[in-house]
Design goal:
heterodimer; A: 264 residues; mainly alpha; ABC transporter involved in vitamin B12 uptake, BtuC; B: 263 residues; Rossmann fold; 3-stranded antiparallel sheet; 9 strands
């Protein structure tokens, strides 16, 4: 096995370990479109990062935070439904990102890599980002777990019972922004949300508790990464999309009758 | 309420106003809830009942007025709706533990108290409307609350079940001596299970004991013919049940009331 294959596998599993548990909350809180809106804004973050000469990941996180804040403030406008606002920002920001990239004349940008992933080009530096940031993300998630779960069940009940809902929502959003930044290299901006949504959805069929669902989502996500990379190495398919295809196949395969009878 | 116990206010508000788009949804409302007392907010849909409750719980900001709580008061809240996404695998045990980290015995006891002893393993999404209300109530009780706040506690419950739930709320009050603030638009049933009624239509139209309020012109105007039937229901009910109304309501300057001769 080649080094770059192992590096890619380590990166993909690292991202799955954060995306699985976090994705469960995205599913429970019905925020997949919100996640898509943030991820579509990531390209603008890459452009800004390159323009300002900082790590594109920092640009992505910063842009995601600004967009999330914009969504929160605009969602209060009663004239527009939330999904209209998300739709405007998702596609508007992607377009703005593509325009901004075109302005970067003196930098060569691998646009396809950003849009659809470039997992086989993962560097040791990327791994430090994924595992260092991922570990702190998981630690935060562990500390916030019960409160975050409670507010996902009933926001106001959690507030009456003393959960600091606003602060937790903010940290949760920061973690989503971070996952988008690290998953960009793996499956690309266009497919990031699939890493957050598909493994938890598959895990749901086997899980009886929220914690089981989070752990199974990590396993399903890691298996998808492995499957996609093997397909890429053996039959030369594009790695990022292959990972998502494997995740989808796992989702539908476990939906077959006779699989996963023990629904909670 | 026994003679030795003195009612103390747990939660009170003065001149509370909450506006939405320039309109006062809650208009200069003053109220208080005492320990051991069941206070019911009734009013038509859109009268600002839920808004008032949410303001009192500090879930929304108010435009003016003050809300005070007795220091250290614990509030148990039963919200009007509970919609858990079907993708979340969560059973009743796990749901109860989200509120207060409780022992297995405490949880079983709370479920018994609300009459659903056998649902602890049931997924939350598999409960009926009535069972969901009772589990929410159990979660509130596990906090050992001084004040229970219930927003439409019979939402999604059939008629027979509604009467049972109000009976249960009264039993809990009698046993735990906690204060209860509840919201209802069901006049018939709630009148029999309450000490004091606040009739709300953005402002307080009238307030007092249930039998007095149901004969108040402001109340009759607000609820029309439905109120007449309700007044009948209160009378029959009151003579069946031994309602304990010794504690004098605090503000009833615009209602006439008579004394019940029992205690």
């Amino acid at each position: 096995m080649d080094d770059f294959f192992l590096m890619a596998l380590a990166a993909g599993v690292g991202v799955s370990m954060v995306a699985g548990p976090l994705g469960c909350f995205v599913v429970w809180r019905r925020m997949s479109y919100f996640g898509a809106t943030l991820s579509h804004s990531a390209l603008l973050g890459v452009a800004l990062g390159l323009l300002l000469g900082v790590n594109p990941m920092i640009g992505v996180v910063a842009t995601c935070i600004v967009i999330a804040a914009a969504v929160f403030s605009m969602e209060r406008d009663p004239r527009f439904a939330a999904d209209t606002i998300l739709g405007i920002l998702a596609h508007g920001m992607l377009a703005l990102g593509l325009v901004a990239i075109a302005f970067l004349e003196n930098v060569r940008v691998d646009l396809m890599g950003y849009l659809f992933g470039d997992i086989l080009a993962v560097s040791p530096n990327d791994l430090i980002w994924i595992y260092g940031g991922g570990a702190s993300c998981l630690l935060m998630l562990g500390l916030m777990w019960r409160g975050l779960l409670s507010m996902s069940v009933h926001d106001e009940l959690a507030r009456v019972e003393g959960v600091p809902v606003s602060a937790m929502r903010l940290v949760f959003m920061l973690m989503i922004a971070f996952v988008i930044a690290i998953a960009m290299k793996i499956v690309g901006i266009m497919l990031i949300v699939s890493m957050l949504i598909i493994p938890p959805a598959t895990a749901r069929r086997f899980a009886r508790t929220p914690e089981q669902m989070a752990i199974y989502a990590i396993i399903v996500g890691s298996l998808s990464v492995l499957g996609g990379l093997v397909a890429s190495a053996t039959i030369d398919t594009p790695a990022g999309p292959s990972i998502v295809v494997v995740a989808m196949v796992l989702f539908f395969a476990t939906a077959m009758p006779g699989v996963a009878q023990r629904r909670a | 309420m026994t003679e030795s116990e003195v009612m103390r206010p747990l939660l009170w508000a003065e001149n509370l106003t909450v506006s939405r788009g320039g309109q006062a949804v809650v208009d200069k409302i003053s109220l208080s809830v005492n320990s051991g007392e069941i206070v019911t907010l009734v009013g038509p849909n859109g009268a600002g009942k839920s808004t008032l409750i949410r303001a009192l719980l500090r879930l929304i900001d108010c435009d003016s007025g003050v809300i005070e709580r007795e220091p250290g008061v614990t509030i148990g809240y039963v919200p009007q709706r509970l919609e858990i996404d079907p993708t979340m695998p969560i059973d009743v045990r796990r749901f109860l533990r989200l509120g207060e980290v409780s022992s297995e015995a405490d949880m079983k006891h709370a479920l018994e108290e609300v009459g659903v002893a056998d649902v602890i393993e049931t997924p939350m999404q598999g409960l009926s409307g009535g069972e969901t209300r009772r589990v929410l109530l159990a979660r509130a009780l596990l906090r050992d609350p001084d004040l229970l706040v219930l927003d439409e506690p019979t939402a999604g419950v059939d008629f027979g079940g509604q009467a049972e739930l109000y009976d249960l709320i009264r039993t809990i009050r009698d046993r735990r001596r906690c204060g209860v603030l509840l919201v209802s638009h069901n006049l018939h049933l709630v009148m029999a299970a309450t000490d004091r009624v606040l009739c709300l239509n953005h402002h307080i139209c009238c307030e007092g004991r249930p039998d007095a309020v149901t004969r108040n012109p402001a109340y009759l105007e607000l609820f029309g013919s439905e109120a007449v039937a309700s007044a009948m229901a209160v009378y029959t009910h009151h003579h069946d049940h031994h309602h304990d109304l010794t504690g004098a309501p605090i503000d009833e300057n615009n209602t006439h009331h008579h004394e019940h001769g029992h205690g």
